[in-house]
Amino acid sequence: MSSTKSDNWGDRPAVPLPLAGPGQVPCCDQCKRQGSTETLKRCGGCSTMLYCSKECQKAAWTSHKTLCRRPRGNANPSPINVAKMVGDWILVHTETFEALLNTTVYLGGGVAHALSEPRGIVCRLNMRNDWNGNPAAPFHLVSFLLEHRDEAEILGDQWDGLMESRKKAEGPFKVAETPEIAGIIPIVFSIRDNGSNFVVNNYFPVNHTRLADDTALDPRTRVALFGLNVHCKRCLDGGLVYHTVKKPGGDGMGMDLGRYGKKGKKGKKWKWEMRTPGDPEFMEMRLQNTALTGGMTVPETWKVYNEL
Predict the structure, then answer these.
(1) Which residues contact 227 (CB under 8 A, 6 or more apart)?
(2) pLDDT confidence of 225, banded at 50, 70, 90?
(3) Are 135 and 270 in contact, with CB atoms under 8 Å apart?
(4) Which ranges carry the MYND-type domain (predicted)?
C-alpha cells in the first residue's frame, strides 16, 4: 500500500479524543469528580468540556484555552468542537468504522505488521460546507491509510505523544480481558475546513483473524475484504449508517443500512431511518460493489469478513 507525504499541517495543537465506553459516567474534566449533565456545567466557550466548579474551570484554562475558542473573526469551529464532531461521527458509524479499520490492516500486510512500530492509521477528512448538523455526515472521507511514521509527516509530528498515551487506551478497551483484540493502533485524524486544519488523535483496537498466517490472504478473501473496505468508505463519506435490526436480513449479520433524519415533535433529534425499498443510491452502491468484487454481493463480503 503506497503512502504519500502530507501537506503543511499548520501549527494547531493535536486534540486527544476522549476514550468513552458504554455507560461512562460524566465527570469534571479537571478534577475527574463524577457528576451528571445537571450538576456539571459546560464551558461557555466550546460547550464541550464539563466542570464541577468555577475553581476547576479556572485551573483548567491554561491548557484548555488553546483548544476552546475559535480565532477572532474566524467562522471555523474551535479544535475541541471538531474533536467532539469526530467522536460523534465514529460513534454513529461504529460497525462501519471498525470494519474499515480491520480490513485496512488485513489488506496492508496483516495484524503483526500493522501493530509493529512505527505505524499508524491516518484518516484525512474535509468538513462539509453544507453540513446541517447530521452527526452521521459532517465530513467527506478523503483517505484512510495505514502509514509508516517516516512516510507520513503528520504521524511523525505526533508520534512521541501517541506512544506515551497509547498505553492508556488498553484499559478502556479491556485488551487484557478480550482475546479477539490483537492490540491498539494509533490513529490521527486530519480535518480541513475552509483553509484551516485540525488534528485529532485517538486509538482503536485491531482484531485477530482466525488465520494461521494473515500475511497471505487467498484471492477470494482479498477481493471480499477489498470490496467491503471500499463499501465502508462510501458509507462513511455519504453518511449511510449500519444499524442492528431485530429481524436479520439486512447487510452484514443482522444489520441494515439507512440514514439519519430529524425526528420528534420539534424535529430536533437525529435518529436512524431504515432505507426505503428501491432507493436509487443504495441500488447503485450495490451494483458498484458487485462489479468491483466480480459478482460478490455486499452481504457476502460482510460474511467473509465476519468469518475471518
Answers:
(1) 289, 292, 293, 296, 298, 301
(2) very high
(3) yes
(4) 28-68
Name residue 245's amino acid. V
**Measured distance CA(256)–CA(252) in Å, rounded:** 7
Three cell numbers written together for 163: 506512544
Report the amino acid identity of residue 60.
Answer: A
Contact predicate 93/238, CB 8 Å: no
Beta pairing partners, 187:
121, 202
Could you report the per-residue pLDDT of 27-59, keeping only the tens digit for each? 888 888 888 767 888 777 666 678 889 899 888
- CA 276/CA 295 separation, integer angstroms: 24
Q: What is the DSSP string of 228-279?
A: HHHHHHHHHHHT-EEEE-SS--SSSSSEEEEEEEEETTTT-EEEEEEPPTT-
128: amino acid identity, one letter: R
Q: What pLDDT does 51 receive?
A: 86
**Using the 8-state DSSP alphabet, how is residue 11 labeled?**
S
**In the block, which residue shows the cell 442492528?**
244
Q: What is the pLDDT of residues 110-142, one digit of tens each?
A: 999 999 889 999 999 999 988 888 999 999 999
Q: What is the DSSP letter of 250?
A: S
Of 142, 184, 111, 101, whose CA–CA distance to 6 is shortest?
142
